[in-house]
Amino acid sequence: MSEACKRGRFIVLEGLDGSGKGTQLALLSKALTDIGITVHETAEPTQSSTGGLIRDVLAGLQKRTAYELAALFLTDRIFHNTSPAGIKSLLEKGVTVICDRYYYSSFAYQGADTELSWVMDMNLNCPEIIKPDICIFLDVPTALCDERIDHRQSREIFENVNTMNKIRARFFEVFDLLRERENIVVIDASRAIEEVSYDVVKSVRSLFEQQEGI
């Protein structure tokens, strides 16, 4: 088997808050594990000290400008890629990494309140930040996301309908800009969990089928 085939795959799940990323990540992880693929689940922000600063901002405990928040996410993302147990190391060992949120969220969330090209450039042109093999965007109407978030105990700063409408539109603007350079799949995630999972797993399995015959 070639070195390219031995490398793990890097899979990102994106979507608005309340889109079901956590549920679909767990189902995808199980589906891949069941066919013999070693999987590591991760998320952004990370559990690093920078990730803690970001979570405080998202919870409304600290105030940061959109530019500061974008820079914090970049720092956390570099750590996520380059730490000894980070994304790069895992992929090189043949582990498939599934990540809940990545730079696409920075583009949509911080890019909505800053200069989008600045946020994109510093992430896409950073040598320490790996491009995913596939990004799956779980598309759910903002009203349904809002209904799902209502069942939680608290809301983060971006979790209101007007903001989510703005961010959803920005996601699709970004996907259009990245169409020629990124593997992005949009899935209707307003359907039953099992239907969504089927489409997610099918999209991801194609990565392995192309080179490994799974």
Summarize the structure in words:
The chain has a single domain (3-212), classed as Rossmann fold. Helix content is 53%, strand content 13%. The chain contains 10 helices and 5 strands, in the order αβαβαααβααβααβα. The protein is globular and about 45 Å long. It has 214 residues and is α/β, with parallel strands linked by helices. 31% of the residues are buried. The chain has a 5-stranded parallel β-sheet, with helices on both faces. α6 crosses α9.
Which SSEs are present, and which pair or pack?
Layout: H1 3-6, E1 10-15, H2 21-34, E2 39-43, H3 49-58, H4 66-82, H5 87-92, E3 96-100, H6 103-109, H7 116-124, E4 134-139, H8 142-149, H9 161-178, E5 184-188, H10 193-212
Parallel strand pairs: 1-3, 1-4, 2-3, 4-5
Give the end-to-end Cα distance, rounded to a whole number of Å. 14 Å
Low-confidence stretches: none
How many helical stretches?
10
According to CATH, the fold-level topology is Rossmann fold
Instruction: Report the portion of residues in β strands.
Output: 5-15%
CATH superfamily, by name, is P-loop containing nucleotide triphosphate hydrolases
Please tell me the overall pLDDT.
91
Largest pleated sheet: 5 strands, parallel
Number of strands: 5
Shape: globular
**Share of helix, binned:** 40-55%
The secondary-structure element order is HEHEHHHEHHEHHEH
What class do helices, strands and sheet pairing give?
alpha/beta
CATH architecture: 3-Layer(aba) Sandwich
Order of strands, main sheet, comes to 2-3-1-4-5
Count of the separate structural domains: 1
Gyration radius, rounded:
17 Å
